[in-house]
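User: Predict the full complex structure for these chains.
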Amino acid sequence: MTTTTRVPQADRSRAMRLRLLEATVEVLVERGFSGTTTTVVSERAGVSRGAQLHHFPTRNDLVVAAVEHLTVLRGAELAEALSGLPRGKGRSRAVLRVLGDHFSSPVFTAALELWVAARTDEQLLAAVGPLEQRVGRETHRLTVEALGADEQQPGVRELVQATLDLVRGLGLADTITDDGRRRGRILDRWADVLDQQIHHQTTTETA
Amino acid sequence: MTTTTRVPQADRSRAMRLRLLEATVEVLVERGFSGTTTTVVSERAGVSRGAQLHHFPTRNDLVVAAVEHLTVLRGAELAEALSGLPRGKGRSRAVLRVLGDHFSSPVFTAALELWVAARTDEQLLAAVGPLEQRVGRETHRLTVEALGADEQQPGVRELVQATLDLVRGLGLADTITDDGRRRGRILDRWADVLDQQIHHQTTTETA
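Assistant: Here is the predicted structure of the two-chain assembly.
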């Protein structure tokens, strides 16, 4: 009967790990990095301290694993949101709205807390740096695909990069001021620029 | 003789206040918000705990005053850097390089630490929010002027806002990866877009 009992145990262990990771992200968003202690996370997840220490010996282990977990979710969510968009006119605007929302979501906030903490914490930086590079490449790839951008054309790659830096900047602004409408207008304007520059569509002259 | 002795005392008090503010900014950049304690700042500034408490009763008082001080410096520095730029061809690129450097400087890093801390600290947010609005308006005004942008034209205002969100996003990226060259290429490309969109200059077609 050992096999039948061992399977649920492994499941329970996986479920517990997942609860800890999800609780970590929640607490990062609610209390910031300095408020994200293993005690608070264990309580939130309903997991004993012993079990928490078994899965994640240090706070950094927990936090880095949580953001790694989140990163995978982020990529999947973004890919799904982008895949559902209709083709044709207005597509660039729709793509930028999805990117704007993505970079203003709790997931971005949790990542922001980590980036800022990693700036003054070498050990954390060593873990967060490579993770962010991976996310960056994946987000860039998804954006190129969604916009139908041809990066072989000179200047197109830089515009895609600029687009991602723009939504990152908008996401940062959003953390202290609720500026959804402002963001929408800026993104629409940027989308029109991309249509002209990348797709060579002419829009109404502005002067 | 009271007047002659009172003047230097007032000067000393002002100098002490300034030293505390400058030390706070330095410590914010080096150790982050959670590492910016009044003890560390007093030591760095060479000011007694008593004198520090006299000027700034709480850590938030100190931190908010330091960023207010910094904000004034930021505006003055940016205005000066922009005023020194030559007119004519290549001006937009030069303006964007100045903005890019400005949003990747220690002053931006100190502000970033505050924004992120304010997100989960209501009292700090109440002080940082209005301050950031003021800086935002001033930076926008300087940018409009430097670019020679006519905001009466439809879509121009949104492009200026997008430019500032772009440099904010680049500044955020810069805190964890040293990407000066990447930033330069992106900003040059965006400057060319602005020349087309705002100044109706035609550049070499990219396709």
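Chain A has nine helices and no strands.
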